[in-house]
Amino acid sequence: MMNPVKKGCGVASPVRWPRYLKDEQLDQLFTLIRRPRDRAMFMLMLRCGLRVEEVARLTTDAVDLCSHRIRVESGKGSKDRIVYISNDAQEALSRYLRIRCAVRSRSLFVVEKGPCSGKPLSVRGIQKRMEYYARKAKVPASCHQLRHTMATQMLNADAPLVSIQDLLGHNWIMTTQRYCKVSNVKVQRDYHQAMERIVSRYREQETTWTEEKEETKTANN
Questions:
Q1: 148 tagged catalytic
Q2: Is residue 51 flagged as an active site residue?
């Protein structure tokens, strides 16, 4: 008996759209993150779009506070890039660096207590800190969601897609375009702005047509 299913015709997997945090969720979460190290880590994810692995690998000499930028080395796909630091992220990072324990490790974020004190903080260690704060704030947050939130917020603020692509370190613009699917705020604003121009132009034309008709009517009389 022949198999009626053709080769290469498998069921397509559902597309997983990026999930981002709303402003009120961010407020709930960051109100609780007061520990300088943790706040600095998560602000870099939210404002710079860093992956948790990239934050774990950051070194002290990769940070240039004077120029408001960070050099991300060997990101996903062994790709280096430069990201920029917002004022609030810089404030959080500066505060952490002022109290960072004096250790030989070049790693920016280190364990602060216990027998492993001074050693680089692991990816899992960072994720566990986020899980702790998310439970406490009762917000379904993850490290990667902070990165998604940064991209969505920038898109809503009219940042060009290619700039967001560079900041996130995406190889393909199609990956960055996924944020257009979830960024309803920008779509809504673009619609209303465009529609206002269309309606305004129509009204101007309508006024012109009415005036021309009145002039023609007056001339005929």
A1: no
A2: yes
Residues 72, 83 contacting (CB under 8 angstroms): yes
Q: Is 147 a catalytic residue?
A: yes
Residue 144: active-site member: yes
Catalytic residue among 39, 129, 147, 148: 147
pTM listed for this prediction = 0.74
Of 20, 96, 133, 179, the active-site residue reads: 179
Which residues contact residue 74 at a Cβ distance below 8 angstroms, ignoring those fewer than 6 apart? 57, 80
**Domain spans of the chain?**
23-182, 184-221
Given 47, 51, 57, 129, which residue is catalytic? 51
Per-residue model confidence as pLDDT tens digits over 10-66? 444 444 555 789 999 999 999 999 999 999 999 999 999 999 999 999 999 999 999
SS3 assignment, position 70: strand
Per CATH, the number for 23-182 is 1.10.443.10
